[in-house]
Amino acid sequence: MKKNTFKLFTSSLLVSAFALTTACSSDDNKNSEPVNPVTEGRWITVAGAVMQTDPGDGNGGTKVYAISKENAIDPNFSVNVYDQGVPVQSSRTARLQSSVDGSTLFNITYTGANGGEFMTYKVNGGNNFAQSDAKVNISQYAGTSPRWVKLFDGDKTGVAVNVATPIVNVNEDKSYKNTRGKATVLSLDMKQTLISAYKQYDIPLTAEEEAQGHHIFRLDAPTLNKAGNKLIIGTWMRKTNTADPSKNESTFTRLGSKSVVVDYPSLENPVVITSKVGFGDTSGYRSFNSFVATDGNIYQATQRDTQKGSYILKINQNNQYDDNYVFSLDTALGIKGSYIDAWRYVGNGIAYAVYTFEGTNQGYVARLDLNARTAQKVEGIDYDADLDFGQYQGFVVDGNSFYIAVTPVGKDGNIYVIDIPSGKVTKGAKLINKPGNHYIGVF
């Protein structure tokens, strides 16, 4: 009996230990599962903007160079995109996009003789970028300087948007009526290299808002909703001085943040939605500015609100702003006048933003928790007074890794790789700079 009892007790311990080990292993496996897809052998394309006349203006063109993920995370590896890289077609700073697996760069030439021309580059490593023979020019519809991003639809579609120079309209008695510019929304089939649809229309505000001089100056950063049937397009707002319509007001009482919603893929039926939480613009500048998160809702950053700083706004799956969701970056970081230059959703409610704030022109990096509505400045990065993310465009998200290029204007910097679940920061490859230049992203 005693022996049997011991045997039973021992067996129970073994079973319990096995169950505990299995549970721990299962949890470990669960925790180690990548937040995002992993692309083995993925290239990391580094992009640098060349100075034209003033340090940091980036108007002298863009050069690119591709390295491996292993090199990107190696602090002993150095990259000099200005000596080693090759230019992409663009008279000024290129607006680049990349495929999820990093194998292809997408580009629409910004200004110049080829402004509005879409082409792709096959990324073969180093300075080997094979430009596609197939091209399509969208300038006759969206101008030579279109704003555009790709949709998160498997790298199938890009959407370009434009607002023609707004025109002041008057009533019969010559009194001020409104200011409007003809808007264009155009979709590109990036696989077939052709225009798949485009629409042009006026996008009116309310009669009261227009009578006060408010108007949409620019559209940018379109995002496809989870259902795949609507595009949410960010706006940059301005206000005409109604007493002297030849001028815009430099400061004015801002309306709530606005976006334009259009049907997809038809691009028809533009409708303006307005947030009562945020009052900044929702257009971003040179990169994505809103994302469909894991919960299926869209999260959108605001800019140019000098009073309240940047907010993260929430657009529900009914394509309306959720004014119960309040996420102020000023409040979360304990600063004033925050300004999100660019940001990227990385999965599981986490995002990273590059920002500045009142009293400084220096850029910083923050980790955002969209669910908790909290933010923390990322430590472990070499910050510098000349660090400027104003033209920043490209982040890479691969598995549990988030890649970002950090270089002050005219000074060397590094690629940093951040572990998405833990937030751990690793200092990676050195980025060799030149006077007046700066790195604007990794793709």
UniProtKB/TrEMBL annotation:
Keyword set, alphabetical order: Signal
Signal peptide feature range: 1-19
Name the UniProt record assigns to this protein: DUF4374 domain-containing protein
Organism (species): Flavobacterium humidisoli
